[in-house]
Amino acid sequence: MPTSLREELAGNQFSGQVGSQLLSETDRVRVWSIRLKPGERIGFHRHVLDYFWTVTTAGRTRSRMADGSIIEKEYRPGDIEHYVYGSGEFKIHDLENLGDTEIVFTTVEFLDSANEPLPLHVSCVGDARLGARRDDHERY
């Protein structure tokens, strides 16, 4: 792994920003959008909550894992994967678009998982206010 990516990984060990934009957050779920143009990537982040994603466009990605392994994957619109994490379990990775068209995912995290949700950066929380229920606005 190049030095710049190792440094990013070290700095994002506890980043809970699992998407490009937080669309909505309630007391039960966080709903994220990931939109990556060709060559774009979302940086390293940590999954600790049970979640699923679905992809709405075809594409190909590369994901670098914290252990140094690399996974390349092809997607078709409507593909879905579910993940469950026990207490203390997690996954850290990034995601890069290797295709020649934009790839779009929606990720839904379940806040009542075995692990506590990670805190979010103010920059991504602000976006969630637009999609949150009216009574959730007081939390921000």
Describe this structure in words.
The protein has 140 residues and is mostly beta strands. It has one domain: Jelly Rolls, CATH 2.60.120.10. The chain is built from two helices and nine strands. Strand 5 and strand 6 (70-75) form a beta hairpin. The model is unreliable at 126-140 (pLDDT under 50).
Descriptive labels:
140 residues; Jelly Rolls; five-stranded antiparallel beta sheet; four-stranded antiparallel beta sheet; disordered C terminus; globular; 2 helices; mainly beta
Summarize this, please?
The protein has helices spanning 3-11, 122-128; strands spanning 21-25, 29-36, 41-47, 51-55, 59-64, 70-75, 80-83, 91-97, 103-110. By secondary structure, the chain is mainly β.
Sheet with most strands: 5 strands, antiparallel
Question: The CATH topology, please?
Answer: Jelly Rolls
Kindly report the name of the CATH homologous superfamily. Answer: Jelly Rolls
CATH architecture: Sandwich
Output the strand order for the largest sheet. Answer: 1-2-9-4-7
Mean pLDDT: 89
Tally of discrete structural domains: 1
The rounded distance between the terminal residues' Cα atoms is: 37 Å
Identify the overall geometry. Answer: globular
Counted by DSSP, the helix tally is 2
Query: Unreliable segments (pLDDT under 50, ≥5 consecutive)?
Result: 126-140
- What's the CATH class label? Mainly Beta
Secondary-structure element sequence?
A: HEEEEEEEEEH
